[in-house]
Amino acid sequence: MNVTLPAVALTTLLLGACSSSVEPQQQNIAPAVQSKTMQVQVMYRDRSLLPPGAELKVTLADVSLMDAPAKELASKTLPLEGAPPYNVELTFDSSEVIANMRYSVSAKVTRNGELLYITTEHNDPFGTVQSQSPIKVMMEKVAKPDVSLTNTYWKAITLKGNKVQVTEREPHMQFHDDGKVSGYLGCNNFTGQYVKGQHFGLRFKAVASTKKMCMDSMAQESAMSEALMNTFSYDIMGEKLVLRDEQGSNLATFQAVYFN
């Protein structure tokens, strides 16, 4: 039997079908990223060479809130080789930069988790002072704990107050855990022993060297040998070693050196 729907029922059915059709979903569309590039030049003032494995991290951050962590907008980490300046390119989303907020570019150098250099000044990349490119960022050296007397390569810097001159090889010495010391006087290699005592800081004994003659460096070698012979105490200040005589006068200074 054919059933004919009333006109009103048919209209209701068609409207219901239309209302049940899939409507376009409203999506939260994120604003497009507006990438910009910032050129940064990082430097530090002293002339120290960085040890192998040092890394530089440069960061652009929103530092508007004094009582909250800075919001990082961009950062780049790279291994360091050679001396500064170091040129770094930072890419950031310019849509995240808001007028009247404070921003700063910072840099730090680390090695195996140890902080070596860090910026101590505010560097506003969008202010009038830093309108030039590249943005110049200066780092300061972080004070280091004293290095160990032993198992350190000590490069001679001064002897009797005079700057050490290097011809073929640099005068140096190394203290070993077994009480032995070895090094290079400027012309000849040497070996010997060292003692740390209750009434004196450091004494060298049984020092012997090879017998090579070097016309250009014998005076400096003699000064190095005399410094070892007259050493009565020592001081280590960070990466600097000072040998002193019994009166406390400076005999020689050395600098810790790192190698690959």
Provide structural commentary.
By secondary structure, the chain is mostly beta strands. The protein has 2 domains: 35-141, Immunoglobulin-like (Sandwich); 152-257, Beta Barrel (Lipocalin). The chain has 2 helices and 16 strands. The protein has helices at residues 7-19, 218-230; strands at 35-44, 55-62, 71-79, 86-93, 103-111, 114-119, 135-141, 153-159, 162-163, 172-175, 180-184, 189-195, 203-209, 233-237, 240-244, 250-257. Strands 8, 9, 10, 11, 12, 13, 14, 15 and 16 form a 9-stranded antiparallel beta sheet that branches. The chain has a 7-stranded mixed beta sheet with strand order 3-2-5-6-7-1-4, with no helix packed on it. The longest helix has 13 residues, at 7-19. The chain starts with 6 loop residues before the first helix and ends with a strand. Residues 148-255 form the DUF306 domain. InterPro entries: DUF306_Meta_HslJ, HslJ-like_sf, Lipoprotein_YbaY-like, Pilotin. This is DUF306 domain-containing protein. It comes from Pseudoalteromonas ruthenica.
What low-confidence regions span 5 or more consecutive residues with pLDDT below 50? 8-15, 17-22
**What's the shape?**
elongated
- State the name of the first-level CATH class of the largest domain: Mainly Beta
Q: Quick one: biggest sheet?
A: 9 strands, antiparallel
Q: State which percent range the strand residues make up.
A: 35-45%
Mean pLDDT: 86
DSSP strand count: 16
Radius of gyration: 34 Å
- Assembly form of the protein: single chain
Structural class: mainly beta
- State the share of residues found in helices, binned by percent: 10-25%
Helix and strand pattern: HEEEEEEEEEEEEEHEEE
**CATH topology assignment of the largest domain:** Immunoglobulin-like
Head-to-tail CA distance between termini: 97 Å
Domain DUF306: 148-255
Protein name: DUF306 domain-containing protein
Pfam families: META, YscW
Organism: Pseudoalteromonas ruthenica
